[in-house]
Specification:
The chain is an alpha+beta fold and 78 residues long. Helices cover 38% and strands 13% of the residues. The protein has helices at 8-16, 18-23, 46-60; strands at residues 28-30, 35-36, 39-40, 66-68. A two-stranded parallel sheet has the order 1-4.
Amino acid sequence: MHLAEPGPAMVEIAACDDRTAAEWPAHFVAFDLLRLGGTDTTPWSYRRRRAALLDVFAEQGLAAPWALCPSTPPRQKL
């Protein structure tokens, strides 16, 4: 799996004002994985999707500005 390269429009926008990016850095925070390599993962359980998302971060060596949102276990039913 690979991450898509930005299109020409995004490259042009980014080149227009590098100072804004330095002053107001953007971050991508992932909390779920809905597609993986062209596969719709929405039928998968959240636990399976979360595990796949963790694998993507590890395999791609993603770090800032990419961030993985912390996850908490589901509440226990009383």
